[in-house]
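Quick entry, no commentary yet.
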Amino acid sequence: MHLNAFLMTTGHHEASWRLPESDPHAGTDLAHFTHLARLAETGRMDSVFFADSPGLQGDVGRRPSGILDPTMLLAALAAATEHIGLIATASTTYNDPFNLARRFASLDHLSGGRAGWNIVTTANVEAARNFGLETQPTHHDRYERAAEFVDVTRKLWDSWTDDAVLGDKQAGVWAESSRVRPINHHGWHYRIGGPLNTPRPPQGHPVLVQAGSSTEGKDFAADHAEAIFTAQQTLSHAQTFYSDVKTRISHTGRDPERVKILPGVVPVIGSTEAEARQVAEQLDELIVTKHAHTQLARTLRRHPDELPLDRPLPADLPTEDDIEGAKSRYSLIVTLAREENLTVRELIGRLGGGRGHRTFTGTPEQVADTLQHWFTTGAADGFNIMPAVLPSGLQAFVEHVIPLLQQRGLFRTDYTGTTLREHYDLSQPGNQYEHEHAAIA
């Protein structure tokens, strides 16, 4: 299986920063993230992954909210690690293809071929206003733009051949000009000349990751993604998603075995079940209900007064089709509450650990058993591990769960390659302009 470490300040539980051992300033501390990346590399994990948004997320009183640009952070981590992949989130709605293509090409060069791009379309009004818009583009428009954005980005990465740079001192030729070409893209959203001013990345293209689970998100993933991050609460829902997306990939003519589906899992680990439950209960007791209630109301497009804490969700909530942003996460939260008949207070507790991702509390053996069961029953190709508390949660997973998976033959005991593509067993993409480069030469 494939295992990524999804890193977030002091951990994914919203109250993790309130623990005595947590550093409230960890989100801007390079030493903190360097330690985590090296720890994940010690466990031979595929990558470290950072989420991102071009806007402040929610109430800063709730949890650590000030975050670093992940591409800059990963450039620093590239120098502190040797093998582990480095995946950053970047929005197609609030970036320019040329600048983004250059940033990820640079990260791939600096890391020796370990970069990955988590493609998101960004769904919040605050981000739109940071870029001069009064409202966010529609769900359909964001995905339409994203498809062209990815197309242009790939063209820019391919604007240099792998062997363009000659470095021929005797002939006085640094690069062969016939092997570097403009892209001259004229599309609906972009008109870009090119070429990129950075040579082709070591991996050809950084690994393309996608994290949307709406219908359009799944179609986009089928067309473009090489790894898919998803939130699934139950085994049956995960199996349905897995089968659906793999089928969509097949219909595009791509090999579904080459696209890795990686649900997020929030493990809370203890040496005994009682110890694990104690850790989970301590965290849940530290949730500030007012903050969490306000955030849930915002997600559900309701005023907090319309969501009494000790009653179930209202019956007249909008449908997924009525939602313009984060459709799949909205649907997941409502479905969870309905299927388990949760009160608003109970739902807040369930979401506190991972914002809708599967949270599991137990011993290392129980965590390993759960991952193995999902992996072997058509629910996942691996997992995005989201420790509730950092660094202790990642350390417990690396030291106690990964050895069990290794003993069962489910996870690597050492790296066999140096690039993220090799970790994911992905081939290097060919250059789409190969024939044109050859004709010019």
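second:
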Amino acid sequence: MHKAVIPALLLPLALAACATPQTRVRNGLTDLGLSYPMADCMSERMVDRLSLRQLQRLSSLDGFEGKKPGDISINEFIRITRGLQDPEVLGVVTSSGAICAVTR
């Protein structure tokens, strides 16, 4: 009986480890307060254009505590992203936000 419980406990960990980078970025963007459709669209573009370090810096942005998906606009997200002082990140976030706002 003990041995049957161990695989059941490890399954969620194994599934989490299999999450794609796009899924992780999308979830991070919704945690920051972007709507799910916007985060889904933007994450696809951001994963292709930004380094892992740049994506990690985005996830550490301040000003999003207690936000729920859909609480912030893309304009607010871009404004706060400027604080990273990384022109490449700002360019990708801005262009991704503009394209996704039009296509979603």
